[in-house]
Specification:
- The protein has 3 helices and 3 strands.
- Helix 1 runs parallel beside helix 3.
- The longest helix has 18 residues.
- With about 90 residues, the chain is α+β, with helices and mostly antiparallel strands.
Length: about 90
């Protein structure tokens, strides 16, 4: 597939994710840096546990509180849309 193809896939998916999140919760820069996207969240451990019940894995982070998604080349647009839907439902 090639490294550049994978990088373009990650960039596209993180752009979709960032575009769909409210500016107020996005902790990562809008510009592409990597597949890591941090989202502000007052109860990161609880949010991670709730998402895990839907088989969505995120990492709770602290200082500042939030969750981190790790988007990679094997992820799909459907994965991102599913996360967004579940995240909105539990918020």
């Amino acid at each position: 597939v090639g490294v550049r193809t994978i990088e373009r896939q990650i960039e596209s998916l993180t752009a979709l994710l960032k575009d769909e999140l409210p500016e107020s919760v996005l902790m990562s820069p809008r510009s592409f840096e990597s597949g890591l996207v941090a989202i502000a969240d007052d109860t990161p451990e609880h949010t991670a546990e709730r998402l895990a019940t839907y088989d969505i894995q995120v990492k709770p982070i602290s200082n500042p509180d939030g969750i981190r998604l790790s988007v990679h080349g094997f992820n799909t647009e459907a994965d991102i849309r599913r996360f967004l839907s579940m995240y909105r439902d539990i918020r």
